[in-house]
Design goal:
heterodimer; A: 275 residues; mainly alpha; MetI-like fold; 0% strand; flat; B: 263 residues; 11 helices; 81% helix
Chain lengths: 275, 263
């Protein structure tokens, strides 16, 4: 304010206080934290929690574990085993079907292959719609269409995977180099040959990566489809739970866990060798 | 022998026999699996007719019971928020313990196994177990999705920590900082931005999944959806599905904006 000009000493610039953020940035950060805390407080205060249920939760949990132990391993063969094989078939066949649907959609969605913007948008819309509906909801729909059974599960897996596979494939297609495609086209090659020899070699690694990744996810997802009647090991699980046969539930859970872990190890191995 | 090899080398775009055989094998497998799963052309044709009837009954979507709809959606959002917060809080120590460059193998190995088990069990299965243990309601959903979040975020967090540069950690350690100081100033600044990305992604996927755990009685809009399905109330089902898709779409747009702003 009334500080004389003589008070500015040499080296004052070095004594300045430095801040990492501007005041605006600091206010912004506080607002973000405030929003997070406010939404959490809102959620905690309004979510419906029944105190009696919460109070005896540890006891109930212990009871559940005691009833599950020891697992009824004799139950594994043949009923759980057959359901497990069915689950694997649902996952694999669903993945194959999803690729059959996703490849044309991805070709349509990739802007460097299909030059019509309206078709690009349509394909994107279909892919987003497939991704927004969960696999269990697809399963409910297909149970209403095909009746309960593995067919509904297979189509649920296929339709759920289309959005995911199609999106990633379209991205891989858009990243391809135009050079080989143009060279092939200049030789007068028909569209099919251009795709097979110009585009396919470039997207092949991405393609196998996506296929393995999605198969791994589908093995997990197909294990629960049976809860809504769409076949697989979920049906056996649902039956065991409804009859309160907790030792059988434990067997089924162990089987699912083992298959999921084996699938993950398998996928990691194959991926390491392929890519 | 050498002559045939030479002609093969001269021929561009030679047929790829292993790939063709692989395609044939895949086709054979599909036929076999379709037989096993009882998928026949006849069934597909009947299914198409049923699908037409189903879609006809879904139209027009019935928004008359919108109070029920809003209540369910709000509960789903609450489940998503709470389970993300809890899951992320629990993932922080788990991720640190599972990172092989910071914690000894005797701690890292069991933590990794625990995280792998959390990830392997589908959240709906976990939700069933929690519904039996804690009873029906949103709390079971929160618990189930917390387990799922832990499996995912802790794994990614541990991987991010394993990729950090140890130079900064050593520099902080050289100043005489304790373990807390090393974590706070040497490790966390290197992974903070990626960690925020994981958290955002997990919030997004928890929101998707929280619309579903209600199918097994763990709260949220899924219960309403399943009940409507069971009562063949297909126009209400269409309304619920449309609102879920709208909710997920809005969430995706918002998180896309946040991600773009962070970059």
């Amino acid at each position: 304010m009334s500080a004389p000009a003589a008070a500015i000493r040499p080296g004052d610039a070095l004594r300045r206080e430095w801040h990492r953020f501007t005041p605006q940035e600091r206010i912004g950060r506080w607002l973000v934290w405030l929003a997070i805390v406010a939404s959490l407080v809102w959620a905690v205060r309004t979510v419906e929690i029944i105190p009696e249920f919460l109070a005896d939760a540890p006891q109930q949990m212990a009871d559940l574990l005691v009833r599950m132990w020891p697992p009824d391993l004799a139950h594994y063969y043949p009923s759980v085993h057959d359901a497990l094989i069915e689950t694997l078939h649902i996952a694999t066949l669903g993945t194959v079907f999803s690729f059959a649907l996703a490849v044309p959609l991805a070709l349509m969605a990739a802007r460097n292959i299909c030059r019509i913007p309206a078709l690009n948008a349509l394909a994107q819309l279909l892919l987003v719609a497939s991704r927004s509906v969960n696999s269990l909801v697809w399963a409910l729909i297909f149970v209403a269409v095909f009746g309960p059974g593995a067919a509904a599960g297979t189509f649920a897996i296929a339709f759920r995977s289309v959005g995911f596979v199609g999106k990633l494939l379209a991205e891989a297609l858009e990243e391809t180099a135009p050079g080989p495609v143009e060279a092939l086209r200049a030789t007068g090659a028909p569209w099919g040959s251009v795709m097979l020899k110009g585009v396919w070699p470039q997207v092949q690694p991405a393609f196998w990566g996506i296929a393995l990744f999605r198969w791994d996810i589908n093995v997990r997802e197909s294990a629960v489809l049976g809860l809504v009647g769409a076949g697989g090991i979920g049906v056996v699980l649902d039956d065991a739970i409804n009859f309160f046969q907790w030792d059988r539930v434990a067997t089924v859970l162990l089987a699912i866990l083992a298959v999921v872990i084996i699938a993950e190890i398998l996928v990691t191995r194959i991926r390491a060798r392929l890519i | 022998m050498s002559a045939s090899a030479a002609t093969a080398a001269r021929r561009a775009f030679a047929p790829n026999w292993p790939a063709r055989l692989g395609l044939v094998a895949l086709g054979l497998y599909c036929v076999y699996a379709m037989g096993r799963l009882d998928i026949t052309g006849e069934r597909l044709v009947t299914g198409l007719g049923e699908a037409g009837r189903f879609l006809a009954r879904m139209w027009p979507p019935n928004f008359e019971r919108w109070e029920l709809l809003v209540e369910g959606l709000l509960e789903s959002i609450q489940i998503a928020l709470l389970s993300s917060a809890l899951g992320i809080l629990l993932s922080l120590p788990l991720g640190l313990m599972a990172a092989r460059n910071l914690s000894p193998a005797i701690v890292a190995a069991p933590t990794r196994a625990f995280v792998a088990v959390c990830r392997s069990l589908h959240y709906v299965i976990v939700a069933i177990l929690f519904v039996k243990a804690i009873g029906f309601g949103a709390l079971a959903g929160v618990a189930a999705l917390t387990v799922a979040s832990m499996g995912f975020v802790a794994k990614l967090f541990a991987e991010a920590i394993e990729e950090i540069s140890m130079k900064q950690v050593e520099a902080i350690r050289a100043t005489g900082a304790g373990p807390g100081g090393v974590l706070l100033y040497g490790v966390l600044p290197q992974v903070a931005s990626r960690f925020t990305g994981f958290c955002l992604y997990q919030l997004d996927s928890n929101l998707r999944n929280s619309t579903l755990v209600g199918i097994v009685g763990a709260g949220g809009i899924g219960g309403t959806l399943f009940a409507a399905f069971k009562r063949f109330d297909y126009d209400f089902v269409a309304a619920i599905l449309l609102s879920i898709i709208a909710l997920i779409f809005v969430a995706e747009v918002i998180s896309g904006r946040i991600r773009a702003a962070m970059r």
